[in-house]
Amino acid sequence: MNASLNSSVGKGIVIIIKDVTLYAVKAILILDNDGDRIVAKYYDDTFTHLKEQKQFEKKLFNKTPRTSADIIMLDSMTAVFRSNVDLNFYVIGSSNENEVMLNCVLNGFYEAVSTMLRKNVEKKFLLDNLDGVFLALDEVVDGGIILETDSNNIISRVATKSNPLIQNDDLPLSEQTVVQVLQSAKDQLKRSLLN
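-> structure tokens emitted (195 positions)
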């Protein structure tokens, strides 16, 4: 949903905002130290084939220095990245996307993964907990739209979804999965029959 907006502010000043969209993120990637894909989720049709995606990932990996965090422009896209031990985290947006916002997404996702891995952000531990990493990724961005950047909220939602047997009596119904709602209803029915 792209829109162009023209508005006058004061006398003689015109502000033009082009291509306002909710779809801020084009891709989130985690690559290893050889530039090979560990996690990759593309949210638009910029790279439709696996071969194109892998070529872009190699090019991106080769252009990014091994620093803790930075921003680069590549192929008319903005990439924010962060390296740690043997992993490289990337968030990709369009060339006119706000780098600060993309960096918030990167930091929220990275901190959530770091917390889930108990600060051992390394390839071995990430592969052992890949299901939780994908759950965290789904909590951060959905279809290119940023949902959450606070790592504590991401961790909370991942913990809730990854363990459906958690006591969810104090969670709002909208925050529970179907399995959790059914488990909660089953527990309440048991309690009412036993009393």
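The mean pLDDT is 82.
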